[in-house]
């Protein structure tokens, strides 16, 4: 189990403020950037990686007051070009001056709708939050142990805890709601489409019942008759796929533009969706087509 003390939470957004630093030429820059305070075990707890320099360490007592760590976004923002160039850069003035000792690889401390911005991380002499990294196979045991330790240490303070995964999910509440609505409407649309195809197949089969009987008497096979009845429906499904694919691609790309970090829409998604639509349509239509193809032609022709 890893335990870390910090003054701000890594999920949910951080505060920012004004300070001064310097560019590659040593010229002073006045800037606003995000900030947080952590202890020496924070980076290991969250499995963060170094881009240059080092993390805070008990071996360097000055870290508690005079050292800072910045992210890669700060290197880009202040024109330092490479993470190595950030080491030794000064923030602040006079007694409040601090020096960069390390550069951490970028991590998202806000929603993926926003790009990672410049961040400075100071040492937390005190903190209002604790982070614990536990083995998920023993979550209950870890929580029970935490509650016992907390009750014996600070019995008058109620324990409030949450999983980072839950906090991350809260950031995307709108997307989760949209997903549920999308699945519901997609399922409803599929059901309506299948009912429509099934009803249309019944209508077509009823109109061609005598033609099917004559073809079967003349030696037509069951697969041949099913193909005859299904191909017209398949054409309609293929036309629908041709219309829906570009509209879906454009809509998905427009939605993804709201995210600074996003995936690209893979063409395989449309192939799989198209094949699934064709398969579902064929299964829906084939129910009635097969029944008509295997029916006794005498019954359909006896009125002639």
Protein architecture, described:
The chain is of the alpha+beta class. It has three domains: 2-133, no CATH class; 134-171, no CATH class; 172-301, no CATH class. The chain contains eleven helices and nine strands. Strands 2, 3, 4, 5, 6, 7 and 8 form a seven-stranded mixed sheet that branches. A two-stranded antiparallel sheet has the order 1-9.
Give a quick summary of the entry.
The chain is an alpha+beta fold. β2 (16-22) and β3 form a beta hairpin.
Number of strands: 9
Total domain count: 3
Strand content: 15-25%
Shape field? elongated
Overall pLDDT level: 84
Percentage of helical residues? 40-55%
Instruction: Enumerate how many helices there are, as a single number.
Output: 11
Structure class: alpha+beta
Distance between the termini: 85 Å
| Secondary-structure element string | EEEHEHEHHEEEEHHHHHHH
Q: Please tell me how large the radius of gyration is.
A: 32 Å
Uncertain stretches of 5 or more adjacent residues: none
Query: Major sheet: size, sense and barrel closure?
Result: 7 strands, mixed
Keywords:
304 residues; alpha+beta; 3 domains; 7-stranded mixed sheet; two-stranded antiparallel sheet; 11 helices
Structural topology:
Layout: E1 2-6, E2 16-22, E3 28-38, H1 42-45, E4 50-53, H2 63-66, E5 67-71, H3 72-77, H4 83-86, E6 90-91, E7 98-104, E8 119-123, E9 129-133, H5 139-153, H6 164-171, H7 173-207, H8 209-217, H9 222-256, H10 267-293, H11 297-301
Parallel strand pairs: 3-8, 5-7
Antiparallel strand pairs: 1-9, 2-3, 4-7, 5-8, 6-7
Helix pairs in contact: 7-8, 7-10, 9-10
């Amino acid at each position: 189990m890893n335990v870390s003390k910090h003054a701000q939470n890594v999920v949910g957004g951080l505060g920012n403020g004004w300070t001064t630093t310097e560019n590659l030429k040593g010229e002073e820059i006045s800037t606003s950037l995000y900030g947080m305070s952590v202890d020496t075990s924070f980076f290991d707890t969250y499995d963060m990686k170094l881009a240059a320099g080092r993390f805070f360490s008990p071996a360097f007592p000055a870290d508690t007051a005079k050292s800072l760590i910045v992210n890669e976004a700060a290197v880009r923002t202040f024109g330092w070009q490479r993470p190595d160039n950030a080491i030794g850069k000064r923030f602040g003035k006079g007694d409040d001056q601090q020096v960069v000792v390390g550069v951490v690889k970028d991590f998202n401390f806000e929603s993926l709708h926003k790009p990672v911005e410049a961040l400075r991380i100071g040492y937390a002499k005190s903190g209002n939050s604790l982070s614990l990294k536990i083995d998920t196979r023993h979550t209950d045991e870890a929580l029970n142990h935490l509650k016992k330790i907390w009750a014996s240490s600070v019995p008058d303070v109620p324990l409030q805890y949450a999983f980072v995964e839950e906090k991350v999910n809260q950031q995307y509440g709108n997307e989760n709601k949209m997903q549920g609505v999308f699945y519901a409407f997609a399922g409803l649309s599929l059901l309506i489409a299948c009912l429509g195809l099934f009803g249309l197949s019944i209508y077509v089969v009823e109109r061609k019942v005598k033609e099917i009987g004559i073809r079967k008497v003349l030696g037509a096979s069951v697969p041949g008759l099913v193909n005859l009845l299904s191909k017209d429906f398949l054409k309609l499904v293929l036309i629908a796929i041709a219309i829906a694919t570009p509209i879906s691609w454009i809509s998905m790309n427009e939605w993804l533009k709201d995210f600074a970090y996003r995936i690209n829409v893979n063409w395989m998604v449309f192939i799989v969706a198209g094949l699934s639509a064709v398969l579902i349509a064929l299964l829906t239509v084939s129910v009635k087509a097969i029944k008509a193809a295997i029916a006794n032609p005498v019954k359909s022709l006896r009125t002639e």
